[in-house]
UniProtKB/TrEMBL annotation:
Assigned keywords, A-Z: 4Fe-4S, Iron, Iron-sulfur, Metal-binding
Native species: Streptomyces mordarskii
Cross-referenced Gene3D superfamilies: 3.10.20.600, 6.10.250.1450, Glutaredoxin, NADH-quinone oxidoreductase subunit E, NADH-ubiquinone oxidoreductase 51kDa subunit, NADH-ubiquinone oxidoreductase 51kDa subunit, iron-sulphur binding domain
NADH-ubiquinone oxidoreductase 51kDa subunit iron-sulphur binding domain boundaries: 528-575
Protein origin, superkingdom: Bacteria
Family the UniProt entry places it in: Belongs to the complex I 51 kDa subunit family.
Protein name: NAD(P)H-dependent oxidoreductase subunit E
Amino acid sequence: MDLRFGAGKPTDEERAAVDALLGPPESAWEGADDRNDTDLRWARGGREARERRELLLPGLHALNDRVGWISEGGLDYLCRRLTVPPAEGYGVATFYAMFAVKPRPATVVHVCTDLGCAARGSARVCTGLERDLGPAGSAGSGAVWQPSPCLGLCERAPAALTIRAGDAPQAAVVAPATAEAVADAASAPHDAPAEPPAAAAVPQTGADGLVLLRRVGVVDPGSLDDYRTHGGYAALRRAFTLGPAGVIREVTEAGLVGRGGAAFPTGRKWAATAQQPDHPHYLVCNADESEPGTFKDRVLMEGDPYALIEAMTIAGYATGAHRGYLYLRGEYPRALRRLRTAVDRARARGFLGEDVMGQGFAFDIEIRRGAGAYICGEETAIFNSIEGRRGEPRSKPPFPVEKGLFGKPTAVNNVETLVNVLPILIEGAQAYARTGTGTSTGTKLFCVSGTVARPGVYELPFGATLGELLELAGPPETLRAVLLGGAAGGFVRPDELDVPLTFEGTRAAGTTLGSGVVLVLDDSVDLPRILLRIAEFFRDESCGQCVPCRVGTVRQEEALHRIKGLTGAAAAGDIALLREVGQAMRDASICGLGQTAWNAVESAIDRLGAFK
């Protein structure tokens, strides 16, 4: 291992930030001030050093949170403490959009310019910020603002997030955003208006038939007692009665499939993990929902955090995992606060820890923050990120149930999938399966945004039609198209609103349900510009590991730039090129990002007649 530390020295602030996470250094090798020859002769090595590498991402957050950026001296000090080569630490730090390795002000403003916010006027916000704060990336005003991918605030678009580094980092969400409100939040994040309650994102609050959303707006998200009063931890008690195999049987018979887009049977995944002889087993909750237009998991975590903690505990019990990692996207400050509170209070009351509910089962949860990388929504990229490496997907096989996090059997589920386990255990598998259709059972959360009257998270039984969903949300008078599944999804025409919202129904209609994104576009939306934004998004978010995706996403964007104002024969050559590049990405990319980067553009050309 070639460490090659540079000559940079950490500032007192940087040293304090790292030491607060790792504790004081134990030797001069790790940076202690009491240097002597004996002290320099030893350093951590072997397994002890490797096991500390997982603290690299939290360490980078600690530096970024304290100072606002990561200097060479600060990075060297962190890497010395963890026995990580600085070159590798630099590679990790530069992988994530929320970190900076060049000086910048302590206050950074992220302004969403993605699909939902673009449809709601984010361009006006950016124009105003150029006037008030200077050009994007300019630090002249004491704060720097930058365009951002989706912030998961689509129901309040356009949106902005202000983060101020310091001893006590501050974050302020401004949504709906105006340039004036964002500039005010940048100057004083602590004075920004409070966010509306999570229930404001649920237009159906109080309606009959809600299952996953029934407690949002009803319970106090900070109160464990209130959660228990409304049925909390009844599912975990039944899980202990059934035993691990019984829990897996119930989940399998209920027909629960993953809600993140892949629709893999959850019971099969849990059974495969539980059966592995290698130990320990791990559970990972994928709460890094960064698909543009997706915000359902955020609403669940902000409005009903204990439900996720209980569901993760059940999943750990069923799969034989005694440790769970909750990988939360870095742009969710309120969800982070509420989940930290929920984990701490559950642990203090015996619902997490060495003896959960006195049943002799040990399980605990660690929250890990992402730092702005769409690719980390891919399950194996999450493993690399948690382990302190660049968040690049791994080749499969081996599959996560065999060799996942830290090379051990791992079950990965997203927030919505896990929370579905609670009604399955409370109602029973048969009762749960009676809702929905034969192959898509239960209810589904849909993230409706764009040009609708009532954007938000809606819960409907599988089998409801797209038209029925839009009627609830208030469709525009002149509907141009609906994008299902987000940037990796496909478009639906106004005459196709009878498509059933099931995994099999959307596939038969030539589109995808994905994670539940329903982006509504009216005639005022510039469709070529939307397609170009999708292409820009995939170009930026490609991890660059494989050639088909790394090159293909760039070529796709270049072709769309050339033809955005063209039609007919003038665009034919580039459309043919787009098809060739898109097929190559679909066939040869390592992971789902490259395999789906062409989907929305293809559907716009073939279904909407773009560029004709």
